Fold each of these.
Amino acid sequence: MEKEKTLGKEIQNLNEVTVRFAGDSGDGMQLTGTQFSDTTALVGNDLGTLPDYPAEIRAPAGTLYGVSGFQVHFSSNDIHTPGDTPDVLVAMNPAALKVNLKDLKQNGMIIANTDSFDSKNLKMAGYNSNPLEDGSLSNYKLYPVPITSLTSNALKESTLTTKEITRCKNFFALGLSYWLFNRPLEPTLKWIKDKFAKRPEIAEANTIALKAGYYFGDSTEIFTTRYQIEPAHLPKGIYRNISGNEAIALGFITASLKSNLPLFLGSYPITPASDILHYLSLFKNYGVKTFQAEDEIAGITAAIGAAYGGSLAITTTSGPGMALKTEGMGLAVMTELPLVIINIQRGGPSTGLPTKTEQADLFQAIFGRNGEAPIPVLATSTPSNCFYMSLEAARIAIKYMTPVILLSDGYIANGTEPWRLPKVEEIPDMPVKFATEKDGFAPYARNENLARPWALPGTPGLEHRIGGLEKAHITGNVSYDPENHEFMVRLRAQRIQNIQNDIPDLEVVGDPEGELLVLGWGGTYGAITEAVTKARKERLKVSQAHLKYLFPMPKNTKDVLKRFKKILIPELNLGQLATVVKAQFLVEPVSLTKIKGLPFKTSEIYGKIKEILGGGNGR
Amino acid sequence: MADNIDAKEIKLTAKDFASDQDVRWCPGCGNYSILAQVQRSFPDIGVKKENIVWVSGIGCSSRFPYYMNTYGFHGIHGRAPAIATGLKIARPDLSVWVATGDGDLLSIGGNHFIHACRKNIDLKVLLFNNRIYGLTKGQYSPTSEKGKITKSTPYGSVDYPFNPISLALGAEATFVARTIDREPKHMQEIIKRAAAHKGFAFVEVFQNCNIFNDGAYSLLTEKETKADNVVVLEHGKPLVFGKDNSKGIKLDGFKPVVVDLNDGRNSINDLWVHDDHDESPARAFILSQFTETPGLPTPIGVFRAIVKETYDEGIQTQIQRITEKKGKGDLKSLLYSGGTWEVN
């Protein structure tokens, strides 16, 4: 670490920092965190974010369960997670301190809004004495700042109400954080101007609060040090900061343009999937049609109707909604129409933990339908990967005339990272050929991919009927013939199995064979990558592979698994992939599970790697 | 209709709308008449058969698409309005029809039905109402009368039925009509009017299930009783019914009253004149409740037919407006938007 002095303040260079903003669910912490991340991305750091908020929109102020947090991990190196343990905690009230302190690094920095540490709030957070004064925080670097009153002072000329003025305090905290980590104010200033264009008095107040926070850092004697995190050495290119849900929306619009099919989304609002509906509903000038349906079932069945009419049809949901869509998925299997079902997983079962992350819908995705109803299952691994997996889901759906399930989760959906944008011409086209020729047309005839023809209503001479009853091979007429049923069940299964030949092999990072393979899927990618990287730096014999295609799996999966003595599968469930892998490949993986509604920490996976390879036998 | 007239185009006949599939309803089923009247009406609705799609759910009625030589989609139980909605939004150029039954539309599919009504999506829904579950062999349905004895209600049902016309009106459907399987001419007329309506059109067809609920509508269909028990609604005409049109209905406040046109106390000028374009659904609702009031005849015909923007039009208009404002989207500006930065 280098130190230098400017303007009486020391500047310290750091490689990486994790900051957590925490406050009441009405304090604007998600906004503060998002703005900090976006600015941090623009200055060129690599970053990962983790919003963590309660399901209640405005939980009673000051309560422990009403605490909302947003964690940002940023670095001059390549990073993959939102960070295990924050270096800095910005606590807007006692409850935020209480809930988050246990995660803070020893000797970490606490910036506390002293104004909110009154007897009422302390009591609500369960403090008998004020932790800012009783010495209980002596293991941390404590910076008490009267954020509320400083904000009010800065805005004493404002015509806003006291309540409105108080609400600007998150911008003060943001401004102070920008000063502390040497970030520019301009991106947020511009954002404020655009966001509050219709309320100039609010825009002005937030601008003043933001600048007041920044200048406070500069002028106060409390802070003697500022921190500098140099831009990361990322590969050349043009970048933007992206969340998983945004990337899914962009992915399907891209697929629509590349396939020349209009995009149709049938959806019912559900956390944490609704943002995809919000984003897509903005893109009317791309011809996107979004249908907010009366329920989850109408969401998928309307999408099926749109697919029949020749749209690139998708439906978005989360676990409970997925359950409701089950029958619709069966219909899409039987009618062999292209459709993508996107499940942004959250804590279950039932309503479960709506705002928390989990990976417990894998069984549901692979197996959860009546009858033999195989559906390809794909999973995203990072926010930007959502873009590419969306393209893949669309490609497979169209090419094989099948519904496809795309799994993401709350962690990826709301998390952000810098994304190196692809060149548009490098994204392959997805040609679609509709049936138009009357001669030889049969609704359930098969091409080389065993896909049936896509014949759109409106095409003269191709009038035909499809539906949920078993279809006769070729003609598509209703058939109860036993031989035909078995034939069709096997044919549908084979068609999906063949997709194995059309997806990339499972890639191993690290040695291609050896002691231990950490096999992951979905949002655990970042934590696994950091854990394996760390272990390999310590010369532990461990490799990594990440499944993006869960059903069918890449055809080399078995070979890969057989080359390692041990396989570790970290999952945010009770071991669902481990069970599938056992059944398919007759291997005995070690399962590392966590069901807390939170992502893995790097240290948890690293610890397990050490444990397995412990005693030096892995070196 | 928008197409230029093609001299070579031959006018279609009912036969052109019959598919090559064997019709498998029970002999004597009222569905045969509905199928026949649809096939007879369709050559006159001015839509090419490749532009017509029949969507259905589950139940006897829902086999209907297999028998029509148009495009067809036999869906899942209750979901036909939702499938049809998606199809119509995606393809506003198509004429989309739904064949459904009282269990399919009003029980398992009730939610989709009311929302399709309120959205005024341009679908045509034919409800085959036989007041019984036929395909599952004889359980009571949401339109069965209270006290109905069926396999699932051996001591009589204890719940009250839906009145489908009242329900559709309450859900703001813009076209609401009723006809009877035994009135072929009337049914053809109603089907053609539904086809011509721009917006959501709901047609309840009283349909006899001769196996599980035979005679459900015999009062309305048998020669001896029909005249006194059915009133035919015609726009701009007074409500007259009975043998030799001897009876009429006048409105006493909100209360419909049957009057004798031959007793000298009331003339035809005193009667309720039906106006199916009335913006307010209030009178149509009173008409819909005739069936719940002893002594009043059952109305058939169009209860309500008003025009307002359809859901599918609304979507199209919005897309056009935003596209004109923002310009047609291209891939590069889609991806390279938001705050971007370059790493060299």
Amino acid sequence: MIRSAFASFVITAVLLVLVVGIVLVPIALSLPDPLAVLDTFVFGPFRNPRHTGNIVEMATPAMMCGLAVAVMFRAGMFNLGVEGAFFLGGLATVATVLLVPLPAFAMAPVGILVGAVVGSSVCAVPGYLRARYEASELVSSLMLNFAALFIGLFVVNYFLRDPAAGAMVSFRIPAEAKLPKLIAGTRIHLGTLVALAACGLGAVYLFMSRAGFEARIVGSNPSFAAHLGLPIRSILLRSQVIGGLIAAGAGGIEMLGLYQRFSWQSLPGNGWTGVVVAILARDNPILLIPAALFLSYLQVGGDLIARNFDVPSEAVGLIQALVLVVVTAQAIMRNPRLIRLVTGKKPAAGQAQDTKAVEGSVA
Amino acid sequence: MTDRPLIAFAGISKTYGNGTLALDDVSFAIRPGVIHAVCGENGAGKSTLMKILFGLEQPTSGSILLDGEAVAIPSPRIAAEKGIGMVHQHFSLVPSLSVSENIVLGQEPRRGAFLDRVAARRRVEELSRRYNLAVDPDATVRTLSVAAQQKVEILKALSRDVRVLILDEPTAVLTPPETDELFDRLRDMRAAGLTILFISHKLREVRALASHVTVLRAGKLAGDAPLAAIDDEAIARLVMGQAAGPALKRGGRVSGTPRVVVSGVHLKARDANDRLEGIDLTVHAGEILGVAGVDGSGQRGLVSLLTGRAQPTTGAITYEGKPTAGLGTAALRRLGLAHLPADRFQDGGSKRMTLVENAIAGAHRLAAFSTGPFLKRRAMETRTEEMIVHYKVRCPGPNAPLSALSGGNAQKLIAAREFATEPHFMIADQPTRGIDVAAAAFLHERLAELAAKGGAVLLITADLDELLTLSDRIVILYAGRIVARLENEPGLTPERLGPYMLGLESAA
Amino acid sequence: MTDFDLASLITFIPAILRVTTPILLAALGVLISERAGVLNIGVEGMMLTGAFAGVVVSAATGSASLGFLAALIAGGLLGALLSFAVHVLKSDLILSGIALNMAAAAGTTLLLFMLTGDKGMSGSLSSKVLPHLTVPVIAGIPVLGTLLSGHHILTYAAFLAVPGVGLFLMRTPMGLRLRAVGENPESAAIAGINVRRVQIGALVTSGVFAGAAGAFLSMGYVSWFSQNMSAGRGFIALAAEVMGHGSASGTMFASLLLGLAEAASIALQGAGLPSELMQTVPYLVPVIALVVHARRRQRQLARA
């Protein structure tokens, strides 16, 4: 087991370097000074503490969205509502601190809690429809993401909009509601600690608690869960409510940690990043932390070259897409020859069987 | 007819990616125009060898000679071109397509850009007439009985101008009379010049049908002889590798009070094979009640009712006198139900999870394995290690995935979990299907032991030898009804069960 | 119903057909992929790329037809790419589809910037528009003319493709093989069918349909491409296919229903209702339809 985990780690690392290279090198070559572009992308994020801080700031929502995805995927639910939950959670948090008279100390916790509950509906409703009616959670969560976006924009436009600001943005978030900064010279805030703790708790939930064990049984084989008499529907619903709460809470934390006003005009994309992070971490809550940091490092590098050279930062989106494909690529990750190359030994029995099964050979 | 072999296997070996040696240097020849039996226990390599001949698997080394020439068979399509057809153990039909669509699939008659459905139907009718196998070309395959699906499967193989027809355990799903009919058709085909490769582990059938037998054991060629030159004991020795053990002794069991009573139960199900129409049966403490019947006679419906996965449309079930209406699996398990499911990897466990997780699942909320909301991983592991030792589960370790285990060892681990609750009522559904003799014997002992200790056991099995070895009483299901109730007395034979299983006779 | 209402309803129908067109084209593509057992989640990204390719090539060549052809080819190529990820790299189908959507959103923005220096709009490219068709004779008849004539050429194509796809799936040897592959790939392989080739073909075809849907977005009524202009229509198409129970006609009726919802939301925005709330309607209707469908299925199971 340990050997194959090691092989998988090495292969993943090599793949990531290759993927970054495949996207970045051609773009760099199309510009006047390719070496400077690569240098800025690779080393830039570490030259300035503020930029290094950016990595941690961006990793914070990525970790939590990744955790939300991992909790649902582990229960076998392909619920993609994380994107909408994050958006709606951020909005409901801002709406709460703006509209509800609260004492200063209660603003952030109450705001984030309300945001988490309201935003979680984007994951919980598809979860309920799946548990109650067996309606595909994949399709309904994709739809509700967009419904959440437009409902959110309606709320901003009609209830939160600051007429003095030029664009369609909310009033300023009160300073008392903001999450405290942790490190001077960066924007790293309390939310990062919350995210790290959430990943730790996520690992405890999935691997050390009865509820998490039951969710993993349902996720890995629902017929087995039925055979044991587990309450499948409530386990499915519970997993998706937990996922929604985490994702929506992340949206609230993001708003109170980094933003002056609610200014999202479209879905911010953090949920999709969460999917990539979760897949890269193989749905393991502890591995979410390095996975989120790595993807954020790429994003900061991408933003730096966008700022210093004439390139949009969208190149990073291409990298993310490729990461998603290659780390789930059985032909690469489970390739016996590659595993042998890394470990110098034959692959474990179970691994090889899995590869066979995936290749769809006729049994 | 010449003496030159039609097919010759020359030094065929097959090693799977996980290191399992499925075939080890197997060589033998098949003459044209005969019925040639290939015998061996489950896992002896029979199916693998046939898959290699049919192009579904590739040999690691060795070659196949067809008409004396070495040939490569990389896919079923190439096998078909060379005149090799196969009737699969688990049929290769597409359930939502019609009989004729299934048969012409891959070589469809066309009219312009469209499928010529008239020609397709005609082709099926011709085949059906030529081989005396009656089917309805327009029926949807899903609605057909297992025996009818097998006919379609055979016609599909024959529709490709085959010279060699492989049948992989074709009688496993048939009743004795259906088996007789199949054998008559196979003899007709041989008379028409076809060469037939008949895979079986039932000596009686091999003796009745074939003229030559090849025996495989643990991937190696154990023996190869004309049937006229070898007696049954010799074949059995080749198959088993040693003298077969004595049959399990029944007796020493006293039936006690009624434990599970099913009265007047009807079940309406979407699948006609699961329907029940007025079932009355009682399982007493301390007895094994055997349930016989052709696949799809209502067994699945009965199991889903008794395990709480469905509720009877009418009628009632009681456990130890208490009505179970409305209770689900969890509640029934609390009353003392345990269940060895027919499909062990589908329902009995999770391949991707570890042995510990598979062994403790269901019991994980007991105080022994959890404190508050948390699991005691150490205690779970210790308990699993005990199960592995006690049930002789061969495995790399308690934290290996279930997928690393063979079928027999996985079934032993699942049995360890189900027996661990000291059940009052055990449903054993095809408990030893497809597993090795030693593991099967071990599980038979456990079931007998449970009954001897006062447990009630419902044994559902297609293996009539197993049924007759273990049961105290036998009920036979046909089309959702009980058609016979028999005491399992010494003189009872599989042949006597046959007419009931096919619904030709009724004694209830 | 008063005469006035009837008249406004008739004038409303072309609007419904207009918004239904891209949904229907994409949904037929999803249908083909789904029946082959390879549900195309990447349809959103394929539409977006098709829309982009149509604008760029028609601007470069000055020809609307070449632009349309480029949109079809771009969709087909992405179908092949998705198939490469699934069949060669053996990546997860759904995740690869999501990745394709991410890559298409990023890639079109990147290329747009490289070509025009603008990230948001293709305003500086003078791209072409595909024509409308006037059906002779019928165009002159009062009500029938409004209903049947004067629509966009791709609207006719989309509705004519419905029986085309239906006949292909149910009545041709290729369609039979495709359905067999989707339902039971092992059996299809044993029958000598090359499962991988059928699925590759289905994904490429699915991409071509999505490309056509994309071309309608950027070349149907407007002559520009904007960042992320598919705006979730691919996902609506996905929902339409699911609602259509795997048949071409069912997919068409579901697409019309969703098109009606979208057209109504556009019309009601004009009536002074909050436009944001109206925009949620096309996304909520599929969810409701899924639940209705699922409940009916559950009731049927319960009754059986």
